[in-house]
Amino acid sequence: MGDDADLNKERLELVLEAAGLDLWENDLVSGQVTHKATKTFLELGFTEDEIVSGVQDIFGLFHPGDLDMVRQAVADHVAGVTAQYRAEFRLRSKAGEWVWFANYGRIMDRSSDTPGKRLIGVTFNIHDRKQKEDEIAHINRQLTEQNKLLQELNAALELLAANDSLTGLANRRTLMEMGANECKRTERFDHTLSLMVVDIDLFKAVNDAWGHLAGDRMICAVAQACAARKRSGVDIVARFGGEEFVIVLPETDGVSALRVAEALRQEVAALRVSVNDEGVSVSVTVSIGVATLHKGSGLSFEELVNRADKALYRAKETGRNAVYCADVQHGCVPVVHMLIDPGEGRNGALLT
Ligand SMILES: Nc1nc2c(ncn2[C@@H]2O[C@H](COP(=O)(O)OP(=O)(O)OP(=O)(O)O)[C@@H](O)[C@H]2O)c(=O)[nH]1
To answer: Could you name the domain of life of the organism this protein comes from (predicted)?
Structure first.
């Protein structure tokens, strides 16, 4: 029998050693360590003589941030809440460094009057694993931050790719894409679509007289006036080229578009644009060409822009600061009707 016990003890020691486990036993009732976790203490840099023999003394080696969790894990197991006692924690080495260990244990006398007299378990070093977990967590945090940065960069790039950098309006590429979609909607749902091409009059003279910066200010001022007309989520306001803008007005017939264009023309004509920092400001006017698309016209968005452009040229030819309309329904018949306020002579001309 004694031989068997010795053999079993040897076998157990071999298994524990091979698995890197350190056996311990605590008497929770007396608070005494009844089998010391020698290997663990040696790993922590203590000598065998320095190994403490009170459970509270061992708790004194625990990291303050882990202690409550460990106590709770023991209490839960003693109370029968958990089938095993498990905990991961840091112990202070003799040199003062924190080393990660794990405990796995069980009350062996649960059915006795004083359960907790024999809490037996093993301790094993998990420092490398924890360090790797920390490294992975650190890398994950970095990746998350980098992803966030990439998303922000992508959003900024998308904005740059879609918008004009001077005015912030949609750029020509965005206009052509969105405009083509609006044309498809017109065909499919029989919605009337109007479009204006807005061009600053005699803009070169502003550049020549006051410099390009002043020209840029004028472009921005007119861009703002165009954007102010925009029905949010409906209209498209774009910078088409240098001093030329396009406004797409879905669900808008020719007469309504002419009214919008005329209001914009008047609003711009009332503007004063500051051309230097000395307080000098100049007036500005625009010529506007309007074209309207109806279902069945078969026109592409580009063709619609060209029509509005032709009306714009007419406005320029007749003296500028004017609104002209190309009636798409009737093709390119060169007939001019005065549509709005014929008394003024310049505005609201219908060009077919
Ligand atoms: N400041 C500035 N000027 C620009 C920009 N893009 C184009 N231009 C200038 O705009 C001027 C356009 O001149 P024109 O096409 O002759 O037109 P205009 O002087 O407005 O004459 P009309 O259109 O006939 O009334 C050119 O001198 C371009 O160099 C820009 O982004 N900023």
So the answer is: Bacteria
In a domain, 139, yes or no: no
pTM: 0.64
Spatial CB neighbours of 195, under 8 Å, sequence gap ≥ 6: 179, 246, 247, 248, 249, 257, 290, 291, 292, 293, 304, 305, 308
Determine the pLDDT at residue 98.
Answer: 97
Residue 153 lies in a domain: no
Catalytic entry in 243, 251, 267, 303: 243
- Domain range for 278 is 163-351
- CATH classification of the domain holding 268: 3.30.70.270
Residue 204 Cβ contacting ligand 1 at under 6 Å:
yes
Test site for ligand 1: of 197, 200, 204, most ligand atoms within 8 A of the Cβ: 204
Nearest-CA residue for atom 5 of ligand 1: 242
Residue 316 lies inside a defined structural domain of this protein: yes
The CATH number of whichever domain residue 79 belongs to comes to 3.30.450.20
In terms of Cα–Cα distance, which of 317, 318, 314, 345 is closest to 327? 314
Please give the ipTM for the structure prediction: 0.92
Count how many domains the chain has. Answer: 2
What stretches of 190-236 show up as alpha helix (H) in DSSP? Answer: 203-210, 212-228
Considering the domain architecture, whether residues 210 and 109 belong to the same structural domain is answered as no
pLDDT in tens, 284-324: 999 999 999 988 888 899 999 999 999 999 999 988 999 99
Told to judge if 243 belongs to the known catalytic residues of this protein, a careful annotator would answer yes
In a domain, 155, yes or no: no
Model pLDDT for residues 38-57, shown as the tens digit of each residue: 999 999 999 999 998 999 99
